Amino acid sequence: MKKTPKSLRLQIGLFGRTNVGKSSFLNLVAGQDVAITSPVAGTTTDVVEKSMELLPLGPVVFLDTAGLDDRSLLAEPRLKKTLKIFDRSDIITLVVEPNTWTDYEERILEEAKKRETPTILVVNKIDLGTSSPEFIGELHSKTSRVLLCSSVDFEHRDPILNQYKKFLIEVCPDDFLKPPPLVGDLLPEAGLAVLIVPIDLQAPKGRLILPQVQTIREALDFDASVMVVKEREYAHSLANLKSHPHLVICDSQVVLKMVADTPEGIPCTTFSILFARNKGDLVELARGAAVIETLKPGDRVLIAEACSHHAIEDDIGRVKIPRWIRQYVGGDLRIDVFSGRDYPDHLQEYKLIIHCGGCMLTRREMLARIQKAKETKVPITNYGLSISFSQGVIRRVLSPFPAALEAFQREMEKMRRTVKSPRSLQSSLS
Ligand SMILES: Nc1nc2c(ncn2[C@@H]2O[C@H](COP(=O)(O)OP(=O)(O)OP(=O)(O)O)[C@@H](O)[C@H]2O)c(=O)[nH]1
Ligand code: SF4
Ligand SMILES: [Mg+2]
């Protein structure tokens, strides 16, 4: 599992007996009619390739195979063709019908196991018949990744797609989760980045913390220069520069001061935002931040820390963020803090999840957590974005990332339309 990928695009082999709804499932995922479907068995006569961008994963290609029944699978040259698709596939998606498991499915699963190709089982056509608990139990004994869906039901596309993406994130080869650059793409060659690093009691003795070191290292890798200052010296150092820096980055805790001291026209952001993009899905987390606008006293908020025993994060997660958000909301919130490798059960009880920076998590783990939140329809943001939001500067610090800024703005518009008496603080500072 998670071996070297077979091409630059994640290749997903779509298998299933004739007429189970493989092409329909592909249409549902794509959100449009890309594969020909029809009630006549054997519609897809050869492999149909469909490339698409499946965010946050990236470029994928589906190999929609010709439907086979259990007899034709065993016959040449069908078998040869099937094996060829196995050769290409990084992941197999096997579509089945409720309560039907034949030799065909068994053979596909066996082949996938033999090759260690991860498999996702899709029980399709659930609108036509309910699967027995025994059937579902049996499927779960074969793989933990079982998705129930109706491919003709576009109204419920989002939860299905989110669960499917979560499975893909769990099993795709490591290379597909290669992070985007941390900062390199934001700096021209020989460019200059200014890093504002508070050295307070919480800063570790004698060193910088890993996110700061990583940012410096990547800027150097991209042939840029870096100036590191504390927040008190920042304005003075900036005034002494002959030309403007190309980017200013600060710790979220001093974001208000950075924005106040940085002339318009100089792009600025936070370490937290750089890492939100690098580790996870900045667009989704930016969208989630807008939900703070709609929080009301009494709402439940989950603060999720990926690991326990971290004094600094404790202080931010347990004291500062709750205080700033409560101030913003103008009343008490029911805030639960949860530390650990998994989320608590009953995520759906929360109006918002505010996640830590996830520095100890892999990109795969962070994406899976974001996907799980999406699956349960609970918006998710992170510490840094929630701080920038509650301080009224989120637009400014998101501006180096147009897609994330646009997602945030759109979500804010939506909130304004749906919430009766919106707060107006966030209309300032763009
Ligand atoms: N009610 C219902 N019909 C479905 C569903 N999925 C597919 N169908 C219908 O089942 C028929 C076959 O669907 P296809 O997507 O063409 O099936 P396929 O597996 O690609 O078929 P071949 O390419 O022929 O192997 C079509 O009439 C679809 O509209 C579903 O979830 N519910
Ligand atoms: S993963 Fe990193 S940011 Fe999250 S709680 Fe652990 S140390 Fe803190
Ligand atoms: Mg088909």
What does the model show?
- This protein has 430 residues and is of the alpha/beta class.
- The chain has helices at 22-30, 70-74, 78-88, 103-115, 133-142, 157-171, 210-221, 231-240, 255-261, 271-279, 282-289, 311-329, 363-375, 383-390, 394-398, 402-418, and strands at 10-15, 48-54, 58-64, 91-96, 119-123, 146-148, 192-196, 225-229, 247-250, 268-270, 300-305, 334-339, 352-355, 380-382.
- It contains 16 helices and 14 strands.
- The strands form 3 sheets. The chain has a 6-stranded mixed β-sheet, sandwiched between helices. The chain has a 4-stranded parallel β-sheet with strand order 8-7-9-10, sandwiched between helices.
- Helix 4 links the parallel strand 4 and strand 5.
- Helix 6 packs antiparallel against helix 13, helix 11 (282-289) packs parallel to helix 16 (402-418) and helix 12 (311-329) runs parallel beside helix 14 (383-390).
- It is elongated, with a radius of gyration of 25 Å.
- Bound molecules: guanosine-5'-triphosphate, iron/sulfur cluster and magnesium ion.
- Residues 22-23, 43-44, 64, 67 line the site of magnesium ion.
